[in-house]
Amino acid sequence: MKRTPSAPVPAAVRALLRRWRAQRPLRAGSLLITIFGDAIAPRGAAVTLGSLIRLAAPFGLTERLVRTSVARLAREGWLAARRSGRRSEYRLTRGGAERFAEATRRIYGQSPQVWNGRWTLLVTPPERRSRRVRTNEDLKWLGFGRLNASLYAHPACTPREARRWLRNLPGAADRLLLEGTSTDLASDRRLVSYGWDLKDLARRYRRFVAGFAPVESALRPGAPVPAGTAFVVRTLLIHEYRKIHLQDPLLPATLLPPTWVGGAAYELCRRLYARVFAPAESYLSATARRLYRPLPAANSAAHARFGGIARAAAPGRLSRR
Q1: 3-state DSSP call for residue 83?
Q2: CA distance 90 to 290
Q3: Element holding 120 (H helix, E strand)
Q4: Which of 29-33, 62-66, 159-163, 238-242 has the least mean pLDDT?
């Protein structure tokens, strides 16, 4: 039987992969977190180790590197293993699933359209340097800005929401949550300048747009996207976007510079994600499975990402941001 040749991978996608593979160090664990959060969590939250090895192969991750990274994620409390003979399956722990749920809300959702002018403030006790560095990274991941060594601020969550976010982080019980307002808009903007480097955030968003706009142009509307290509694009799209977006405080428009590039980045991510979602799901179904059965279909929450995959795929339908 004559084998049908696979469709060529667009040059823009090959360039995307080359840039990813050229990174040093190659952060395998971070990419696996993206794969779990974007692809596996909405399809039962569990997958065999062999499946993860196959899913990671297009990105240049070796079997040994995947095994080592998965073991480390398990030690860090993200994943739990189940074994059957020589085969193993990894699923999200309860704490890992809760952290993914919060990250998912931020990554695929819209920024708040209305701000009540209130800030959630977090006071941390004195900590050893190693613990302080970890705390700072955890809180940046949740969108908090660091005002000084012990004080953080967030404009888009209530203390109750923040308490829920923090409960899975080390030392949560020792931290104090407060709520407050400033005296005027100028003070709010000054507080933003203390807590966040918006110039650096804008630079990273512009680099994201420059990297993925050619990919969107290459994947012409109406033309089929090969399943493997779609999975690579979808994974790298969310991987690069989440690294920026999870450190974006999602400030209201009144606190942002004019023509904020974060909006353009969101729209590009929304459109391209909708373009590759369905063929990437086909690739997942053909490549990954559970220990004793195939992966279930993606849940309704996955189809509701970015305001709805079908809606996001429609040209000219832009969400406000």
Answers
A1: strand
A2: 9
A3: strand 118-123
A4: 159-163
Burial of 142 (0-12, 13-18, 19+ CB in 10 A): buried
Q: Which two tokens stand for residue 247?
A: 């450190």
Bond prior to 224 in cis (omega within 30° of 0): no
At which residue do the structure tokens 């499975």 appear?
289
Residues 6+ apart with CB under 8 A from 275: 216, 219, 221, 225, 313
CA–CA–CA angle 35, 66, 140 (5° rounding) = 50
In order, the DSSP letters of 205-264 are: HHHHHHHHHHHHHHS-TTS---HHHHHHHHHHHHHHHHHHHTT-----GGGSPTT-HHHH
Tokens of 149: 């060594």
In tens, the pLDDT along 215-230 reads 999 998 888 999 999 9
Given CA atoms 273, 279, 281, 283 in this order, what sign does their dihedral have? negative
Q: In whole angstroms, what is the distance from residue 168 CA to residue 268 CA? A: 32
Taking the C-alpha atoms of residue 128 and residue 136, their distance in angstroms, rounded to an integer, is: 12
In angstroms and rounded to an integer, the radius of gyration of the C-alpha atoms of the chain is 20
What tokens were used for 192? 């933003």
pLDDT in tens, 40-65: 999 999 999 999 999 999 999 999 99
CB 276 within 8 A of CB 212: no
